[in-house]
Amino acid sequence: MPLRPMKETYTYDALVQFLYHELSAQEVVEMTSSLEEDFEMLAIFQSLASAKVQLPKVEFAPSSGTLNSILRYSAKNTFEVQS
């Protein structure tokens, strides 16, 4: 389904933020209301949600060496600030 420009002021970014639960409570209320009233926007949101489900589930874990470097750096800077 090709994406057409929406008539509403909501952008694709706002829909993605809604999809990832990154909106304020007020914005969620407004977006929910808009999705209930605008079937074109709802179709776009459903398309985004479908694409999200198809993304690979990836978990990132830094190596222990990276974690140790961060901890050493943090300890060094904390010590310097307190001195």
Tally of contiguous helical segments: 4
Radius of gyration: 21 Å
The SSE order reads HHHH
Shape: elongated
Alpha-carbon distance between the two ends = 62 Å
Summarize model confidence as the mean pLDDT. 84
Percent helix among the residues?
Answer: 55-70%
Helix/strand class: mainly alpha
Main beta-sheet annotation? none
State the low-pLDDT regions, or none: none
Give the strand tally.
0
**Residue fraction in strands:** under 5%
List its salient traits.
83 residues; mainly alpha; 4 helices; 67% helix
Topology summary:
Layout: H1 12-19, H2 25-37, H3 39-54, H4 64-82
Helix pairs in contact: 2-3
Structural write-up:
- The longest helix is centred in the C-terminal third of the chain and has 19 residues.
- It is built from four helices and no strands.
- With 83 residues, the protein is mainly α.
- The termini are far apart.
- The chain has a domain of 58 residues.
Short description:
Helix content is 67%, strand content 0%. With 83 residues, the chain is mainly α.
